[in-house]
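Most newcomers find our protein records easier to grasp once they have seen one. Nothing more is needed to start thinking about how sequence determines fold. Here is such a record, shown just as it appears in the course material:
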Amino acid sequence: MNESYVRGDQPRPDVYRVRVEGLLDTAAGSRMLRQLDAHLHLIRSGLVGTRHLLVDLSAAVSTPRGMRALPHIRHAAQSQQLTVHLIGAHRLAARLTPAERAVLRGLHNYPDMGAALRDLSPAPA
């Protein structure tokens, strides 16, 4: 039985969000990578003009193994010139180990989706 739900959506044309609700474990990390891989295929095919990837952890409960997916997500996204940002990771920080916090280092964190969308400049028309 899955204790998490992973979904992707596109709140605006230049932004793709992968959201985890529930337990961010190894299985959820793998589902996040599959969601991103499918979206990267659309980018490579020229079907979407995404510039930013938002990893939404605002409804997630972290595990050390689940956090291991983030460097892989960052690498895959950057291979297509996407910038990677987190949403809601500050909620998890107090419960993370130093190694888990190190995974988050270098990624900008927004408190919520609205703040991220306001701050990220849209693609030029």
The domain at 4-111 is CATH 3.30.750.24 (Transcription Regulator spoIIAA). The longest strand covers residues 52-62. The radius of gyration is 14 Å. Helices lie at 26-44, 64-67, 69-78, 98-104, 113-119.
